[in-house]
Design goal:
Its cofactor is Zn(2+). One of its GO terms (molecular function) is metallopeptidase activity. InterPro entries: Metallopeptidase_M50B, Peptidase_M50, Rip2-like. Residues 125-187 form the Peptidase M50 domain. The structure is a single chain. By secondary structure, the chain is mainly α. The protein has one domain (3-205). It has eight helices and no strands. α4 (91-115) runs antiparallel to α5 and α5 packs across α8. The two termini are 27 Å apart.
């Protein structure tokens, strides 16, 4: 098998499993806070099949890899009913934060393996450590991007939970123009994510990215 094909397979596999963990984390926290919607719809599983979005999990990653661009994507959002949550003020923010935090957790766990890899190097190949780099970088990108406070990203739900009630007009404005703002951010400002990813990558792993 061609090396480029193998790399593509690894990239897509890491991306898919990372976004699956991200979405399942939303569902588990929602379930813990009183909403069983995700459980009833069979979405509290790490089996990727129920979570795969044809565009975000397959088509987009394929074309990005084809043109040697960073492979990003998404899974089907795990459904939940915010009105079932025990805490109506903080519940939606906690559910939203669970996804990015799960990616941070993955990045830290595998990043520490990479940091202390000098002790493991006799046991593992260079390809294994490159695979670790891919896992850490992918999860950091997912975490940081999703924490941008623009709807429908998770960061917006966290922001709305932190806003006092007198500032709900900010939420209404962001929800009305969120998609326009998100497209503008991706086109004009998404480059700001990568220096932050590189900084966090170095802090976790001790390796320049």
């Amino acid at each position: 098998m061609e090396p480029t094909v193998i790399i593509f397979i690894f990239q897509v596999a890491v991306l898919v499993m990372s976004v699956v963990v991200h979405e399942v984390s939303h569902g588990f926290v929602a379930y813990a806070l009183g909403d069983p919607t995700a459980k009833y719809q069979g979405r509290l599983t790490l089996n990727p099949i129920p979570h795969i979005d044809p565009v975000g999990s397959v088509i987009l990653p394929f074309f990005l890899a084809l043109f040697h661009l960073p492979v990003i994507g998404w899974a089907k959002p795990v459904p939940y009913n915010p009105y079932n949550l025990k805490n109506q003020k903080w519940g939606p923010g906690l559910v939203a934060a669970a996804g990015p935090l799960s990616n941070v957790f993955i990045a830290v766990v595998f990043g520490l393996v990479l940091r202390f890899g000098e002790f493991l190097s006799p046991m593992f190949s260079q390809a294994f450590f490159e695979f670790l780099v891919l896992i850490v970088a992918t999860n950091l990108v997912l975490a940081i991007f999703n924490l941008v406070p623009i709807p429908p990203l998770d960061g917006s739900k966290v922001l709305f939970a932190l806003l006092p009630y007198r500032l709900t007009y900010i939420q209404e404005f962001l929800e009305q123009y969120g998609w326009v703002m998100l497209i503008a951010f991706i086109v004009y400002f998404s480059d700001v994510i990568f220096p932050l990813v590189a900084l966090l990558f170095r802090l976790i792993t001790g390796v320049y990215f």
